[in-house]
Design goal:
The chain has helices at residues 10-39, 41-60, 63-66. It is an all-alpha fold.
Length: 79
């Protein structure tokens, strides 16, 4: 992330990334119990896997993501 985002907005990008992670985990924990009770745990987990796979394939379908290359270090700092 820090190789491709301007240093001036990097902390903001990290904040949004962390916010998404910290909000998604408790929401999932809150929702999966009632969803499992209503629809059965196996179907909910299978549906989650399918949604996750579809999300990954959708992201990978973007050429800009597939062609993203590592930025070479201009110089290494030795201590």
């Amino acid at each position: 992330m820090q190789e491709h985002i301007d240093e001036r907005v990097l902390s903001r990008a990290y904040s949004y990334d962390a916010l998404g992670s910290f909000v998604a985990m408790p929401l999932g924990q809150i929702l999966y119990g009632p969803l499992g009770d209503a629809f059965g745990y196996r179907p909910v987990l299978v549906a989650s896997g399918v949604v996750y796979l579809a999300t990954v394939l959708l992201v990978l379908s973007s050429r800009s993501v597939r062609d993203l290359r590592r930025v070479e270090a201009k110089e290494r700092v030795s201590v």
